[in-house]
Amino acid sequence: MNRGFLHTVVLIGLLLVAAGCSNFQKLLKSDNVDKKYQAALQYYEKEDYYRASQLLEQVMPLLSGREEGERARFLFANSQFKQGDYILSAYQFKLFYETYPRSELAEEAMFLYAQSQYKQSPTHSQDQTSTLTAIEALQEFLVRYPTSKFAEEANGMIEKLTAKLDQKAFESARLYYQLRYFRSAVVAFTNFQRENPSSPYAEEAAFLRLDAQYRFGLESVPDKQQERFMEAVDYYQSFIDQYPESRFLRSAEQVYENTLAELEKVKKTNTANTANTANK
InterPro entries in the record, alphabetically (predicted)? Predict the structure, then answer.
């Protein structure tokens, strides 16, 4: 390509960008509300959400009471959402459906509010307060609009958030196990199973509870070992009843056999101690 021609094309492009910036700055300074609003709609249609939001933020107070005011507020909220500012979009969408509860856009605004909350949910390793807020928002949306076209998507988001909470709870319980705090691990895994019976982690939690109880028994004082090993036997029976074809079955059977062996040792020790006491 001719270098002179390429230089001309680049120069024209830069001039157009400069002209566009200049026009936008003029719009920002303009007092013509209708002109600003129409320009905002054009920027929005072109997916230039930053400029659209700048203009919409200026005209929203001036369009209050007019038909365009309702749409301007919705588009402003959605512009923030499209830019990834989910804290502000959540605030604006909630403000919208509370201000215009009968609007034809209220349903979508409430869904996008919940989705904004969903987008703020962190990874499972972090604090899950935002996740709980998102689940509550999605559930509230489904209660208000049970037949909504967004219902399937909302349910899907709830499932993903619930799975994240499950993983958080499971990982917290497993951390006790990894740190060899076996008594705390047993309690945590028991609570996890009770509160999350259908979790994809429930099976592993049941096995780890059994193993943690066995290891807890090993580390216990002699007077407590029989009782704690018997609890491990109960956990084994519960495990195989609930998961007869578990991928952890062979490991669980090994823990069970080890537990029975330890119980046998405890019984022999107790018998010997009883005999020694009788002979004294």
Answer: BamD (IPR017689), BamD-like (IPR039565), TPR-like_helical_dom_sf (IPR011990), TPR_rpt (IPR019734)
Of 260, 268, 189, 180, the residue nearest 219 (C-alpha) = 180
What are the helix (H) ranges across 149-181?
151-178
pLDDT of residue 16: 46
What pLDDT score does 107 carry?
98
Domains with residue ranges and CATH for the chain: 180-267 (1.25.40.10)
Output the CA torsion sign for 122, 123, 125, 128: positive
Q: Which of 278, 193, 272 is nearest to 239 (CA)?
A: 193
Cα gap 104→123, rounded to integer Å: 34
CA torsion angle 65 71 73 79 (round to 10): -160
Q: Are 232 and 255 in contact (CB under 8 A)?
A: yes
Res. 216: pLDDT tops 80: yes
Share of residues in the chain with pLDDT > 90 (%): 78
pLDDT in tens, 41-51: 999 999 999 99
Greatest alpha-carbon pair distance for the chain in Å reads: 113
Quote the pLDDT of residue 2: 54
Nearest to 77 by CA among 58, 45, 49: 49
Write down the pLDDT at residue 19. 47
User: Is 152 within 8 Å of 175 (Cβ atoms)?
Assistant: no
